[in-house]
Amino acid sequence: MLIVGIKSTQLDTSERDWIAAPAVSGVILFARNFFLRQQVTELIAELRALRPGPFLVCVDQEGGPVQRFREGFTRLPALARLGACYDRDPHHALAVTEEHAWLMATEMRAIDIDLGFAPVLDLARGNRIIGERAFHVDPAVVSVLGLAYVRSMRLAGMAATIKHFPGHGSVLEDTHIESAVDLRTLAELRANDLIPFADALAAGVEAVMMGHVAYPAIDALPAGYSPVWIKDILRGEFGFRGIVFSDDISMAAAESAGGIGARITAHREAGCDLVLVCKPEVVAEALAAHAGTKPCDPARVATLRGTLASSWQDLVDNPQRDRFIARVCALAQETTFA
What we know:
The protein has about 350 residues and is of the alpha/beta class. The protein has one domain (about 1-10, about 75-335): Glycoside hydrolase, family 3, N-terminal domain (TIM Barrel, Alpha-Beta Barrel), CATH 3.20.20.300. Helix content is about 40%, strand content about 10%. The chain has helices at about 15-20, 35-50, 80-90, 90-110, 140-155, 185-190, 195-200, 225-235, 260-270, 285-290, 300, 310-315, 320-330, and strands spanning about 1-5, 25-30, 55-60, 60-65, 65, 115, 160-165, 205-210, 215, 220, 245, 275. Strands 6-3-2-1-12 form a 5-stranded parallel sheet. β9 (about 215) and β10 form a beta hairpin. α4 packs across α5 and α9 packs across α10 (about 285-290). The longest helix is centred in the first third of the chain and has 21 residues, at about 90-110.
C-alpha cells in the first residue's frame, strides 16, 4: 500500500523494519540515498534481499532539474529541450525523445530500479514546480512526445507512469509548499491538459500518478483524494485498469485531508492503489496508522516490476548507447525552449 522514502545511503534498523512491514509495497529513492553507482546498486540489492517477491524500487529520473542519480549516469536534459527541438525538427525530436527514454530506463533497469516515474505529461504553462520538466505548452505536442517516451521505456523493460493526472501545468502554485486550485471546467480541461493523458491511457500505460491540485468545478477535493477524478473519470470514463499512485503525502497541498494517517485513508478511499510517503520523518507514523490495512495485491504490484534488464557492462559495450548519449546530451547545449 505504501511506497516509502529512506533516510540516507545505508539502511538503519528501523528502516529494515519498515521494509519488512506488509503495508510497504516499495521504496522511492532520492539524491540523499545516492553518492556512487556502485553504492546505490548495493543498496537496491539489500532492499531486494529484505523483501523478495513483488516489491517496487522507484526513483524520479526525469532529467534536467529532477534527476536523482547523476554521477556515473547520463546527464539527461530536461524534457523542455525535447519540446524545443520539436518546434525546429519534429522528426528529429521524436527520435531523440525515444533515445532519452531508452537511456533513462535502461540505466535504471541495469541497477534494478523498477520504475523511473515518467513521463511528465503536464503542460508547460508556467507552473513553478513543473517548469522545464514539461515537454511543451501545446497539448498535441506533449501527446506526441509523451507517446514516444512511453514506447521507448517499454522497449527498455520499464512500465510507464504518467503524471500528474489530470494536469498540473496550468496553475502557478508549487504543491510541495502551497495549495493549488484550478478553476476551469471539465470541458476546458478536456480541450487542453487532459489530451496527453487521454492519449497515453488509450495506449495502455501501466500506471498513473495523481496530482494534488483541486479542480472545484469538478470536485472540491484535490485530485488524489477525489473519487470523481479517480473512480468516475480515470477508471470509469477512460477505462484505466492499471495502478494509481498518489503524489507524495508529505506535500503541503496534501494537508487538507488531515494528519498522515488521514491522508493515506483519503487516498485509498478515493481509489489510489499505492501511496507515496517520501519523507522518512513520517514513515513510522504512516505505518502505525495503517498497520492492519490490507496491502496492495502483490499480483498487481508485480505488473510494474521491470523486465529485460541489461548489466551495466552490457550497456557500456553497446555502441548504440554512445550514439544516443551524444544526440540526447547535445540538446543540453540549446538555450531556447518551446
